[in-house]
Amino acid sequence: MGISQGANLYFMAVIAYTLQSVFSDAFMVSGRLISILVSGIRFLFNCIPRRWHFKLARPLGKLSCLVSKRRSLAIRRNLRWCFPERSDQEREQLFQDNINQMGLSFFDTGVAWFWTDAAILKHIPHRFVGLDAFLDAQKNSNTGILLLGKHSLHMELDARLFGMQATAYAVARGSDSPLVNALMQYGRSHHSIKIGDKTNPRQFVRWLRDKHTVAYYPDQDYGTQRAVITTLFGVPATFTTAAYTLQKLSKSLVYFYHTYYDQGELVIDIEPLDLPMQDAESHTIQLAQYIEQKIAHQPSGYLWVHRRFKSTKGKVSYGVF
């Protein structure tokens, strides 16, 4: 659902690239090895009970920061800029909570990709808010629905749970690793989220005009082209105007998809969103303010590893990588 290869895929990528480096020649000539490794990773995730996911999340999150100083620094810089009013101790606690959820995202992604529907319903506590009204809108609306969201660390699991209840189209970014692509293709084939090519935006408009639901995540820094400079937590930030363009061209309804953990229960809150349509700037600024409110609801679950302010502060502000 506007899915990118972010922190929730980081550990998968580490496994994939390690295996790919070991078996580099075989990867060049044999897709069978990829199939075997995908089956092995699937078996691994099916063997680990859910209670161990929470126990292993924190050490795994800490390991990820040790392995990649770049990611750790990006998180710390983002938190310092966005929450200057918090004390050093409060920001450190937020950092620790964030890497704990980043560690959990490794298992959440495995659950989303490799567990059966029955296993998810049995072992993953979750609840929907606003689902019935959303399904009624899908069924009865004469237009498509643009379903917007933010990049949570558990977005793959969010998508799997949503796909067990409704259908949608989404956009995904591929990887240069054949194994990572194979894992994503296998995992995402289980739910009714149809993945499209991000290089064909006209396809998104056609989907919406055909009364489908299209999921899109406009919260990251996608550069300065076709974007508005506004603020995120008081920090100058670029926001893409793509949501305005999609809504204007398709005349679609707009909903927002807010997900977060509440004492171990994953909550998926879907609500209609009324944005001004007089111009792209006012539409995007109000959407940015709305996204900020949703991130602020549970900042520890957000994808702070993304260099969110690289277009306004410059990549050098995140350090020399």
What does this structure look like?
The structure is a single chain. The chain is an alpha/beta fold and 321 residues long. The chain has one domain (7-313). The protein contains 13 helices and 9 strands. Strands 1-9-8-2-5 form a 5-stranded mixed β-sheet, with helices on both faces. A two-stranded parallel sheet has the order 3-4. Strand 8 (253-262) and strand 9 form a beta hairpin.
Task: Map the helices and strands.
Elements: H1 10-22, H2 24-29, H3 31-47, H4 50-67, H5 69-82, H6 88-114, H7 117-123, E1 126-129, H8 131-140, E2 145-149, H9 155-163, E3 168-172, H10 178-188, E4 193-197, H11 201-209, E5 213-216, E6 227-232, E7 235-240, H12 242-250, E8 253-262, E9 265-272, H13 280-297
Parallel strand pairs: 1-9, 2-5, 2-8, 3-4
Antiparallel strand pairs: 6-7, 8-9
Helix pairs in contact: 1-10, 3-6, 3-10, 4-5, 4-6, 5-6, 6-9, 6-10
Anisotropy-based shape:
globular
The main pleated sheet reads as:
5 strands, mixed
Number of helices: 13
Number of domains: 1
* Element order: H for helix, E for strand: HHHHHHHEHEHEHEHEEEHEEH
Low-confidence spans: 1-5, 13-29
| Structural class label | alpha/beta
Fraction in helix:
40-55%
